[in-house]
Write a structure and sequence with these properties.
With about 80 residues, this protein is α+β, with helices and mostly antiparallel strands. Helix content is about 35%, strand content about 15%.
């Protein structure tokens, strides 16, 4: 994974991130296990930036909930 400096913060941000709109069931039904696998695969391969928003998901916020669950269950 390539990383870029995030301004002058000293943080290294992955050049590739994951948009999470798709794990909120707005483009079709995705189960919890598949959502978790998508997020974990991105994270395990070095992604450390994720795009999420309150409006992502049916119901609103489902993508944020699934993202948080996937990252917290790993101890990340």
């Amino acid at each position: 994974m390539l990383y870029r400096d995030f301004g002058k913060t000293g943080w290294k941000i992955s050049a590739v991130g994951l948009g999470t709109w798709n794990i909120g069931n707005q483009w079709g039904e995705i189960d919890e296990a598949t959502s978790w696998a998508i997020v974990r695969t991105a994270f395990d391969n070095g992604a450390n930036i994720f795009d999420s928003a309150e409006s992502y998901g049916i119901p609103n916020g489902l993508s944020e909930e699934r993202l948080g669950t996937a990252l917290s269950e790993s101890g990340s």
